Each structure stands twice: as C-alpha cells, then as structure tokens.
Amino acid sequence: MSSYQLPDLEYDYGALEPHISGRIMELHHDKHHAAYAKGANETLEKLDEARDKEDFTRLPGLEKALAFHLSGHVLHSLFWKNLAPKTAGRPEGALADAITNDFGSFDKFRRQMTQTAGTVMGSGWAALVWEPVGKRLLATQIYDHQSNLAQGGLPIMVIDAWEHAFYLQYENRKTEFFEAIWNVWNWRDVAERFDAVRDATLDLAGASR
Ligand SMILES: [Fe+2]
C-alpha cells in the first residue's frame, strides 16, 4: 500500500533569504510539513483498522483528520515547488494570458492574492486554483488546510498564511511577508502546473457558459 512521504526541498534552507529565513524553512519543512505527512499515514492506518474490525464509530473524526493532514501535505509539497531563489519577475506565455483574462491584469492578480493571504482569519492559505467547470483561474482562501474549497478546483500556486510560515522573522507584520514572497515565486513551475491542469475536466456540460 502506498503512503505519503516528506519530499526533499530542491534548494537549501537559506536559499530564499532574505525573504524567508533559513531557520523558518528548516522548521517549516522538517517539523511542520513532516507532521502532516505522518498524520495522513497514521490516519490511513486507523481507517484500515476500522475496516478490519468493522468498527466505524470513530469514522467522522478520522475523515476530518485525513482531510486536514493530507491537505496540509499536498499544499506544503506544492508550496515548496512554487518557490525558488532569485526569481522575481512575472509569469509569461499562456499563464500570463490567463491571469490577465481572469483578473484584469497581473498587478490586480498580485493585489488580490496578497489580500487573500493577508485576510485569512486564523490559519489558512491563499491559493491560485484552476476551476475546470468554468475553465478559469480563481484566487481562493483556504481555512486550515482543507476548508472553504470549491470542489474540483486544482491548486497551482499557494501562499502559506499560517503563523509558522513567517512569525519567527516577521512577527506580527505578516503583510511584509506576503509582499516579500513575490520575490521568490518560481513562475516556470506555476506555468508548468497551469499547462498540466488546463485541460482537466469534470465533464459537466451545461454547468457553465
Ligand atoms: Fe505551513
């Protein structure tokens, strides 16, 4: 049976400095993210046990735990790939065209994504999502790792707005973190993700125009 594992970072902990400190990256990846992958695997084991024993009394709690830990694992795995050292700039090609089409301009998109992250109440994320029914990009807010999602949306770019992502360096000045992160987006990665998902379909003819 397959299980989830912590992916290696493709750059050094300190590679995103000064925008994200090496110590934050080390704790965030090695401790926080690792706990979500472990939690997802442990929850799957408990679901196996429940099926074996035909005892589903704890099922609602296990389903909630699976959504939380697995979503945390997916979003952090994506977040690390979305980032890279010294990459300031803008997306190009089809991704740039789609952003202009769906948000009006890159600057409007950037402002909306930054605000989406900055106005999360409690812990959560901002996510750029490809919505395959309307065939459009959306900037969405995710609570914790799993709530407030529109079903079917495929995330291609995410901003971690949990305090563990910035507090050690930015303390309560989280807006500074959400501005600084625009210096380290890996636009090539986001563009490749866009190309990979833009033909996804839920086969719901008649549900959009
Ligand atoms: Fe995080």
Written account of the structure:
The protein has 209 residues and is mainly α. The protein is built from 7 helices and 3 strands; from the N terminus they run H-H-H-H-E-E-E-H-H-H. It has helices spanning 22-53, 59-82, 93-103, 106-118, 167-170, 174-180, 187-197; strands spanning 124-131, 136-143, 154-160. The protein has a 3-stranded antiparallel β-sheet. A hairpin with a 4-residue loop joins strand 1 (124-131) and strand 2 (136-143). It is globular. The model has no long low-confidence stretch (mean pLDDT 96). Residues 28, 32, 76, 160, 162, 164-165 line the site of fe (ii) ion (FE2).
How many helices does DSSP assign?
7
What oligomeric state do these chains adopt? single chain
Radius of gyration: 18 Å
SSE succession: HHHHEEEHHH
Bound molecules: fe (ii) ion
Characterize the biggest β-sheet.
Answer: 3 strands, antiparallel
The helix content, as a percent range, equals 40-55%
How many β-strands, per DSSP?
3
At a glance:
With 209 residues, this protein is mainly alpha-helical. Helices cover 49% and strands 11% of the residues.
Relevant terms:
7 helices, mainly alpha, 11% strand, three-stranded antiparallel β-sheet, 209 residues, binds fe (ii) ion, 3 strands
SSE layout:
Blueprint (H helix, E strand, L loop, with lengths): L21 H32 L5 H24 L10 H11 L2 H13 L5 E8 L4 E8 L10 E7 L6 H4 L3 H7 L6 H11 L12
Antiparallel strand pairs: 1-2, 1-3
Fe (ii) ion (FE2) binds next to α1.
